[in-house]
Write a structure and sequence with these properties.
The structure holds two protein chains of two kinds. Chain A has helices at residues 3-24, 28-52, 62-93. Chain A is mostly helical. Chain A has a single domain (3-95), classed as Helix Hairpins, CATH 1.10.287. The termini of chain A are far apart. Helices cover 75% and strands 2% of the residues of chain B. Chain B has a two-stranded antiparallel sheet. By secondary structure, chain B is mainly alpha-helical. Chain B folds into three domains: 1-138; 139-272; 302-492, no CATH class. The chains are: A mainly alpha, B mainly alpha. The interface between A and B is large, with 44 and 50 residues.
């Protein structure tokens, strides 16, 4: 088993853990961390693809690496946005999950929109 | 080999003009941001019209190779009939919403800008740029970035009012959208690993029906349908769309979900190999059919006007998936009808639904609430708004001569011609149920006002914006022959 194969398996593991966490964890903060694990797995996979697609004389295919950089920036921005929203949610309502509230008055109140 | 076609520079302009306007507005702020956004969106509409005319006239897709670098190393912008039609729809809806937003987000001369107004006028052109990137992108990775741009701008618009009750539903929307994008990216990574390119034109016809392609296709499809809120991944949409301010709901329901739809079409009919499309199309259509029935029935039972309109989006998005098995059929004529029907459904729903959400917003402002049971008197105070809502509803129901009628009629015909008649039952049932919930609203609005009901008049210009969108959705049905040629350009 070569190093690339181990990295590929690690990528699969990260994706699996991340996906499980995103779906199964109730708290938003844990979901966001799981989303980042999932993202790390995807980026690692791009790295494996780059290594496998290397042309003669090159260590790796540069195109997937360029994609990973873009992906990292996007994931970073997404994480920051989600964290800010989570923080505001906690500050205002004290809630740490996005689960439905009990039925009484839980639904957003569109009537009072301006 | 992609070459820049005459008029290709229009595509660059369609992308950079709104992005530039967003940055300028961000720096200038206040009244200037508002003027810049309105001006940019008006020019954007002219550009979209020029792109559509050019595609129609030349009968071939426009293309622009960025920096002269050929794919797979470089990236291309492409505008076929689908992209041109969706771009034009986006431009019409965005301009109408911007004019509508002058009411709520106006910064009077000399007054300090409010946070909501500043964000609104910056994010409107940002949404235009994101839509242009999603419709014109010719590269699956570029389209991923466009998807994320759409998510971020849509979320900012949805949270415009900063009300606590909104945060939970909008945060849930963000989580769904992020998982959707990361699954899409994972699929794109696998495709790159298998074929060494993500350029759609290069992938077209080269993909094999092997395990990596199937897994990649499944992951990307799952990600995209999470963003489009297809049953059973639809739970986030109604609260998120209904909780947003009226102008934002119109954009979210009308346009943002259509970005993912265009990507799904590109994936299925350009990238994935024919056997996969043949088998998987039926699954997607079955989910769409369930969405039509369940979304409509749940909409029928809603107590709140905006939630009702939002559930109707879940149902109407279901119609878009009916085209998948029809397109894969061997009958070329029927497939071409299904293609036109599906695209027309996306366009007419964008126009009609944005009109309905804006109308619902005006009704809520006027009455101070949006409980369906006590809408009485609304038609007396704002007849134009109620007429616009009803016209939008007629288009969703599929009554002639609306755009929705032509779309559903084409899908119905294609389903009978390809021998898949069971889809036509769903189309008809959906139309009946839609008629039910639209009638509920219109009947309630026409009822005499309840005692003690105080309804304020709403500004006439806002009412006219709503009416213009609804009428556009109706008029769409009268010019099918013209649109026919455009949407077919570069169709699969």
């Amino acid at each position: 088993m070569s190093g690339t194969d181990i990295l590929a398996l690690a990528a699969c593991g990260l994706v699996a853990i991340g996906l499980y966490g995103v779906v199964a964890q109730a708290e938003v903060l844990r979901k966001i961390i799981a989303f980042n694990l999932l993202g790390a797995g995807v980026f690692l996979l791009f790295g494996v693809v780059a290594r496998r697609g290397a042309a003669a004389g090159l260590a790796a295919d540069p195109v997937p690496q360029a994609m990973v950089i873009t992906g990292l920036v996007v994931a970073f921005a997404a994480t920051a946005l989600a964290l800010v929203l989570t923080l505001r949610l906690h500050q205002i309502t004290g809630a740490a999950t996005v689960a439905e509230d009990p039925p009484s008055g839980a639904a957003p109140d569109p009537a009072s929109e301006p | 080999m992609t070459a820049t076609t005459p008029g290709g520079w229009l595509l660059v302009l369609a992308l950079t003009l709104p992005a530039g306007a967003m940055l300028l507005g961000f720096v200038a702020g206040g009244r200037h941001a508002q003027r810049i956004a309105l001006g940019a969106l008006a020019i954007w509409l002219a550009i979209a019209l020029a792109v559509a005319l050019q595609v129609q006239a030349s009968g071939a897709p426009l293309a622009y190779v960025i920096g002269g670098w050929q794919p797979p190393l470089g990236m291309a912008l492409r505008a076929d009939g689908l992209a041109a039609a969706m771009l034009l729809t986006g431009a019409v809806v965005l301009l109408a919403v911007a004019l509508f937003g002058q009411g709520a987000y106006d910064t009077p001369r000399g007054a300090a800008e409010t946070r909501a107004a500043y964000a609104f006028w910056c994010f409107l052109p940002a949404l235009a740029a994101a839509l242009a990137a999603a419709f014109l992108g010719g590269d699956l990775f570029n389209l991923f970035v466009a998807l994320e741009m759409l998510t971020f701008t849509a979320l900012a618009l949805a949270c415009l009012d900063g009300k606590p009750s909104q945060f939970k539903s909008e945060l849930r929307y963000l989580l769904f959208a992020l998982i959707g994008s990361v699954l899409y990216l994972l699929g794109a990574g696998l495709l790159y690993g298998a074929y060494g390119t993500l350029d759609i034109a290069l992938l077209a016809g080269r993909t094999r029906a092997d395990a990596p392609t199937m897994v990649a296709g499944a992951l990307m499809t799952a990600g995209l349908i999470a963003k489009m809120a297809l049953f059973p991944l639809h739970f986030w949409l109604p609260p998120a769309h209904a909780g947003a301010p009226a102008a934002a709901s119109a954009l979210l329901s009308g346009l943002v979900v259509k970005g993912a739809f265009v990507l799904l079409l590109r994936l299925w009919f350009w990238v994935l190999p024919a056997p996969v499309v043949l088998g998987g199309g039926t699954v997607l259509a079955a989910l769409g059919a369930t969405a039509i029935v369940i979304g409509s029935v749940v909409a029928l039972r809603q107590e709140r006007l905006k939630l009702l309109v939002a559930y109707s989006t879940v149902a109407q998005m279901g119609y878009l998936f009916l085209m998948f098995p029809l397109l894969a059929a061997a009958d070329a004529d029927a497939a071409s009808r299904a293609w036109l029907g599906g695209v027309l459904q996306a366009v007419s729903h964008a126009l009609a639904k944005s009109a309905m959400f804006l109308a619902a917003g005006l009704i809520a402002v006027s009455l101070g609430h949006d409980r369906v049971t006590s809408l009485g008197g609304a038609a007396r105070v704002m007849p134009i708004t109620v007429i616009a809502f009803a016209l939008g509803g007629l288009s969703l129901m599929g009554l002639p001569p609306s755009g929705g009628f032509t779309a559903k009629w084409l899908l119905l015909r294609a389903s009978v011609e390809t021998g898949q008649w069971w889809w036509s039952l769903v189309i008809l049932t959906g139309g009946l149920l839609t008629g039910g919930y639209v009638y509920r609203i219109v009947a309630a609005a026409l009822a005499p006002p309840a005692p003690g009901c105080v309804a304020r008049a709403v500004p006439r210009p806002q009412e006219l914006c709503v009416l213009a969108l609804a009428v556009a959705s109706m008029l769409l049905g009268v010019l099918p022959l013209y649109a026919l040629g455009l949407v077919r350009v570069g169709a699969p």
